[in-house]
Amino acid sequence: MIRRVSRQVAETVLSSGWMYLGRFIGLFWAVLLTRETSIAVYGAYAIAIAVSVLITVPLDHYYVVRTLRVDEDTFLGDRTTRVIGGGLLLVVGALLLRGDHFLSGFAIGKAGGEIAFNAVKSGFIRRGHPARAMGVDTVRQVIGFAATAAYFFSADHPTLIGIAAWTLVSFVPFLAWGLWEARQHGPRRPEITSRTAAIVAEAVGGAVYSQGDIVAVGAWASHSSAGYYAYGSLLIWSLAAVGQNYSYTFTESLRAADGHHTAGPSFRSSMSLSLTLGGAVGLTAVIMAIAGAPAELVWTFAIMAVVTVPRTLSSIFTTVLAVQHRDQFRTAVTWVSVAVKFVLLLGVARFGGPAAAAAFVVSDLVMTYAYSRAVHLLADVDGGTP
C-alpha cells in the first residue's frame, strides 16, 4: 500500500511539474502578446483558442473516456481514427488561414492538431503514467512557443494569422509520430449507441462550460475583459488539471475494482489538494494587488481562488465516474451546470471578468455537490457499487 501511494504521489508531482512548465510557457506567451500588442489583441486570440476547444472536446472526448476502459485492440483502433481525423482538420484549418480567415482557420486547425496530439499521448494516460503524457505535452508547447516567438520577433509586422499559422506548423512533428504509430492498426469506426450520445453530449456541455464564458465575455463586455478573464480561466483550469493528474494515477486500480470508489482518491486527500490550490490563487491575487495590477484582473483572480476548490474536486470525481461508466449522470450534471452558469452570465457578463468569475463559482458548486454526492455519499449508502 505504501509503495502504491508513493508511486501515485510521485506521478502526480512529476506530471504536475511538467504541466506547469508548459502552462508557464503558455502564460508567458500570453503576457508577451499582451505587452507587445494590447489586452484586446490577446482577448481576440483567447476567443479563438476558446472556439478551438469548443470544436476539439466534442470530437475527442468520446475517445478520452474510452481510453480509460476499453480493451487494447479497441484502443489502438480508436487511436488511429483520432490521428487521421485530427490530421484532416489540421489541413482544413491551414487552408482557411491561407484564405485570411483567422478565427475559423485557427480554431479548426488547432482543434485538429490537438486531437492528433491527444492520440499520441493517450497510451501514457491509459497505462496510468500522466507524468510521461505531460512531459510530451510540455515538449509540444516548447516547440509551439519557439515557432511562434521566432515569427513574432522576426517579422516586421506580425499578425494573428501568422501566429496561428506557425502554431499549426508546430503540430506537424506529432502528427507524423501519430501516423507512424498507427501504421499497423486500422481505424475503428466510432460506436453509435445511447452511451456514445451521452459521452458526446457531456463533452459538448463541458466545452461550453469551460470555454463558452470567455466567448460570452468577449461578446457582451469587450475583448479586453475577455483577455482578463481568460488569464484567470487559464490558471484555474491548469490547477484543476493537478487534481485530474492525481485521479489518473488511480485508473488501473479503479478498473480492477470495477469502479469501486474506495480504489480511487479519498475525499480527504482530494479536499486537501483543492484547498491548497485555492489558497495559492488567493495569494496570487494579493500579490497582484500589491504590484498594482489592473483592478479587473485582481478581482477576477480573487474570485477565481474560490472557484479553484470545487473545480479541482470536480476534476477528480470525473475520473472516478468515467471508470464507473456513469456517462448519463455526468452529462445531466454538466448541462445543469451549463444552464446555471449561462443564465447568470446573461445578467452579469457585461460587467466583465469578476462578474463572470462569480457566475463560475455558483455553477461549479452545483456540479461539485452532485459529483461528490454520487461518488462518496450515495456510494457509502449502497456499498460503493457504481
TrEMBL record:
UniProt entry keywords in alphabetical sequence: Membrane, Transmembrane, Transmembrane helix
Domain of life: Bacteria
UniProt keyword Membrane present: yes
Membrane-spanning intervals of the chain: 12-33, 39-59, 80-97, 160-180, 273-291, 297-323, 335-362
Protein name: Oligosaccharide flippase family protein
Gene source species: Aeromicrobium ginsengisoli
Lineage: Bacteria, Bacillati, Actinomycetota, Actinomycetes, Propionibacteriales
